[in-house]
Amino acid sequence: MDITVAVDAMGGDHGTHVTVPAVLRFLDQHPDVNVVLVGLPDAIEAELKAQRRQCGPRLRIHAASEVVTMDEAPQSALKNKKDSSMRVAINLVKSGEANACVSAGNTGALMATARFVLKTISGIERPAIAKMMPTRKGGETCVLDLGANVDCTAEHLMHFAIMGASLFAAVKDRSHPAVGLLNVGEEEMKGNGLVREAGELLRASQLNFVGNVEGDDLYSGEVDVVVCDGFTGNVALKTSEGLAKMLSDFLREEFFRNWWTRALAGLAWPVIGRFKKRVDPRRYNGASLLGLNGIVVKSHGGADSVAFYWALKQAVEEARAGVIQRIAEQVHHQLAVKTPLINAE
Amino acid sequence: MDITVAVDAMGGDHGTHVTVPAVLRFLDQHPDVNVVLVGLPDAIEAELKAQRRQCGPRLRIHAASEVVTMDEAPQSALKNKKDSSMRVAINLVKSGEANACVSAGNTGALMATARFVLKTISGIERPAIAKMMPTRKGGETCVLDLGANVDCTAEHLMHFAIMGASLFAAVKDRSHPAVGLLNVGEEEMKGNGLVREAGELLRASQLNFVGNVEGDDLYSGEVDVVVCDGFTGNVALKTSEGLAKMLSDFLREEFFRNWWTRALAGLAWPVIGRFKKRVDPRRYNGASLLGLNGIVVKSHGGADSVAFYWALKQAVEEARAGVIQRIAEQVHHQLAVKTPLINAE
């Protein structure tokens, strides 16, 4: 099946300078993918020209006259920028012209706009932000929510579990993924009121709920999905970024200490390079806004074109795996929602 | 000033096999420190003999007939094991025979027992667990609470801030340490209800409150103290442990891939060794139970003797810096508590 991705070409700290090169490389490597670049035509054309490329049957430009800035308030973007590249890209998903959209723009504005345009899946109150993280076992673990919902109820966590399990099952082709609830200990009575209540709901659910997990299980590979409120998830994610940055700084400092260590670094470069590649955060750049009637993938605002490429990949994989349909079915099945499934006519 | 430390010799996964060698090395390197080894005399004597050492003016044994197990319920330990090595070590702090105590035992039991025996400092409702973490700038940041209080009020976070700032000021000899509130964004309106309310209290306080910080600031060195509820802090700490373990596994795998990478690892060993030493978690092993009328330092249960050594160091530094007095003064000053200061007569 050919997949069409709408790309907010203007989003992120570097706009078209990052999005356009990433799209071009992605198209070269994925012959069954089409891309619609959404944004200011002049800026997009200029970048295409700089890359000595042009539009064609698999790459077209869709004009949008406005750009949401990185620090704009979500409600202001939603109200005042109806022709923003972000909004128009999401509109293309809504209208069915695209199977998914990708933006490196302002997270709050993207979530507010996507929610307004696409609406949530029947039965889901709150969309969540989910991300695959690398694990010690070599696989990946899906973690959510990473910051969309800082105040959650136990029901919200239950919904996140259903959505995360559906995403993992669809994209990784795994039936009954193992779901863990992020807590401060493994015993059932551990944790604050929210997680104890969520634990009860999850134990009573039809999910493959394996119980409480702790922070180190984000990277242990013991579970496929880790569920948490958006406050905790955001802190865990950013703590990881901070630690990784510190370790990387220290390693570089030690290898650049003097001529001898620099020589060693040169010799060991292939080894260090392979290590860096395995844990390169750019490979885990695509965060999914789950719970909407359409695929929306958020790239880090500061992403370079390699990182943006991986966000495109995440969007295409979700579209190909029919993630929205899977989530809607699971929500319907697990929550027994009595409303028609989307795309089910 | 000579410092006497009471050591729960039986605590932790390895008991005397770890605590006794750590104490012996610590005494050799710190001539103004005395240690009381608390526990089963036979086990302690056996380990001393194995180390070809004996008691003397700076090292004595204080018998305790019971041992709190690592999975024992805190209330059961408190109620049924009144002659445990953990409890007797804390009693020695209470009676003034020791200036601080260190235990690698069960955290819940240690907190419950310490709280029961020592009581909290006037004005403090909930003791917290604090730890120094390494930072990119080369210094340290004190983070609390790391798990003692999974449900907190804004007032508790305010108390943690006062305690953390007092600890940092005392041990690092820094006046007005910069305090940050762990949140999901820097803007004042960010976060859940708890942190928004705590932010207001902190802004109105006399602390050097610099505002919200994010997860990566645990390692950025931008602030001296990071305050959070125990649920979030515990997740952040364990997430860090999990990520560090994954990265260390991956680095080892790459360097042990074949004979050539092994040879490189051999050559680069001094460089890698220096890197590992800088981030060795054993150097950050001592967690402080703050808010009690006495110094209690918790070592990781699985600590080896190097890690336990660092917990002893933390306890001695706190005793030398008069941390309890500092906290009591600051609580009194900042919360205007109208009760007599401890040790102030």
TrEMBL record, chains A, B:
<keyword id="KW-1208">Phospholipid metabolism</keyword>
<comment type="function">
    <text>Catalyzes the reversible formation of acyl-phosphate (acyl-PO(4)) from acyl-[acyl-carrier-protein] (acyl-ACP). This enzyme utilizes acyl-ACP as fatty acyl donor, but not acyl-CoA.</text>
</comment>
<dbReference type="Pfam" id="PF02504">
    <property type="entry name" value="FA_synthesis"/>
</dbReference>
<keyword id="KW-0963">Cytoplasm</keyword>
<keyword id="KW-0808">Transferase</keyword>
<keyword id="KW-0444">Lipid biosynthesis</keyword>
<dbReference type="InterPro" id="IPR012281">
    <property type="entry name" value="Phospholipid_synth_PlsX-like"/>
</dbReference>
<keyword id="KW-0443">Lipid metabolism</keyword>
<comment type="similarity">
    <text>Belongs to the PlsX family.</text>
</comment>
<keyword id="KW-0594">Phospholipid biosynthesis</keyword>
<comment type="pathway">
    <text>Lipid metabolism; phospholipid metabolism.</text>
</comment>
<comment type="subunit">
    <text>Homodimer. Probably interacts with PlsY.</text>
</comment>
<protein>
    <recommendedName>
        <fullName>Phosphate acyltransferase</fullName>
        <ecNumber>2.3.1.274</ecNumber>
    </recommendedName>
</protein>
<dbReference type="InterPro" id="IPR003664">
    <property type="entry name" value="FA_synthesis"/>
</dbReference>
<dbReference type="GO" id="GO:0043811">
    <property type="term" value="F:phosphate:acyl-[acyl carrier protein] acyltransferase activity"/>
</dbReference>
<keyword id="KW-0012">Acyltransferase</keyword>
